[in-house]
Amino acid sequence: MTSREPHHAPSPADARSSELPSDLPRLINSVILPGFVGTTAPPWLVRALENGLAGVVYFGHNIDPDAPGQVSSLSAAIRAANPDAVIGVDEEGGNVTRLQARDGSTIPGAAVLGALNDPAITTAAGRVIGRLCRDAGINLTIAPVADVNTNPLNPVIGVRAFGADTALVSAHTAAAVTGIQELRVAACAKHFPGHGDTVADSHMDTARVELTMAEMTEFHLPPFKAATDAGVASMMSAHIIIPELGEAPATLNPAAARLLRDMGFDGVLITDALDMAAVRVTVGPGEGGVLALLAGNDLLCVGNPLNAYTTGRDDESCYVEVYDALFEAVVSGRLPVEVLRRAAARTQALARWSAGEIVGGTHDDVDWVSVAARACRVDALGAASLRATPVLTGSGVVTLVDARTGHNMAAGPTENFIATALAGYAVTEFNAVELSSAELEVALMQARGAVLVIVDSMASPKQQESLELVFATAPAAVCINAGLAPVAPTTHAAIHCHGFSKVTAEAVISLLEQT
């Protein structure tokens, strides 16, 4: 066997070859969900799909926004190779989108919907996500986020969550699941048993939740129970350590999967990406896949082959590493074939459910920009700036300062959607990170027209420093906060829009043209 041909047939030389099933290569493939590079299916992927590969996960680099029908054609090609393929995508709305990655999501994210707190609107947003996926030939959206974001310093969840209140998150998680699945697109509540109280990003580090199981049960598990009660088809396990469950990340921890199954969930349990640090730098993606299946997971999300931490590897080798580890684990007797069969059966049931008749899934006539605008919190926009006219008037000069210091790993880098929404204005842009304080001060002293400054973390010292400089130099400026809104109102003019996407940007500009 070579690394390019992972589809093992049992060898007569194997001591246990007579005990291995003839369909072992298909069984192994049936629990793997890799990513791939390109806007068409590469030959290795087609071969694997023909040999039972569970499916794929799409990322932004698989989408060509300038080619209408490209994604649905790609999905059709994948299903031609495997009619039962699960095609997944992280389509949360708001900050995290793949299908609308270039131009930004037209669907409000979870924090917007939680701030508005109208579950019927959340169900409608779920239907739109379901329709978007369905039209692209996708039958699994890895959403909604069911985490309760109780730690305002959480670097990876934040505005991806519906909020910090357990009851609110539970209600909206169930509403989103209902809307998505009306389109026969499987929802996936994540990240079990709850990633909302971490201060580490499990993409880049091992994340710990320093809570007791009693606290987890009270504050973080209820949204997953709500998703279960709403009939969620799948859930995603988290690479987080909860000390009372042991020192293994939940994805690799049988106690976490038992906890979920004891809550009544009998759907597909999908791992978070095996290329993330909590797995990658400890046991590695291959061994991580073995341990995840032994822990009770059903489907192994391999990850994005273009992530910076996979540099020097191609998409096929990422898949082969996991396949080979599973094969060797079966041959050695560590991984029982029955584990593969159970997992494959759950995944196949999801795929076949998704091919059923759609009942419901009506088109909702919702003005999502208006929804996002209603969810915004406006602080001191009139009093602090002492304006008698709107901040923006539909044309004119705008100075735009981007004080954000990075991007969320789940969302990835994006365009400046506020700048795009200001297309009718003459905009001068500055990136505060690229300027010294003195340079930024000079730029602001020379600024003409309205001054807008974007942040995505009011708790970031660097962003706070930039804000203070902006308001000291240009007191009539307005802060656009795309992160979590602080509990107390700000003393400076601010619009807290609960996310950074096309729809929230357009909502903010509409408010500035009214106020």
Kindly describe this structure:
It is built from 18 helices and 16 strands. Strands 2-3-4-5-7-9 form a 6-stranded parallel beta sheet. Helix 6 links the parallel strand 4 and strand 5. Helix 4 crosses helix 14. It is globular, with a radius of gyration of 24 Å.
Offer a concise description of the structure.
This protein is of the alpha/beta class and 515 residues long. The protein is built from 18 helices and 16 strands. Helix 4 (110-116) packs across helix 14 (368-375), helix 11 crosses helix 12 and helix 16 (437-445) runs parallel beside helix 17.
Classify the beta-strand content into a percent band. 5-15%
- Total count of helical runs of at least 4 residues: 18
Name the strands of the widest sheet in spatial order.
2-3-4-5-7-9
SS-based class: alpha/beta
Mean of residue pLDDT values: 92
Total E-strand runs: 16
The multimeric state of the shown protein is single chain
Q: Which blocks of ≥5 consecutive residues have pLDDT under 50? A: 1-5, 7-15
Instruction: Estimate the helix proportion, in percent.
Output: 25-40%
Main pleated sheet = 6 strands, parallel
Instruction: Please give the alpha-carbon distance between the first and last residues.
Output: 67 Å
Write a concise keyword list for the protein shown above:
disordered N terminus, six-stranded mixed beta sheet, 18 helices, six-stranded parallel beta sheet, 515 residues, alpha/beta
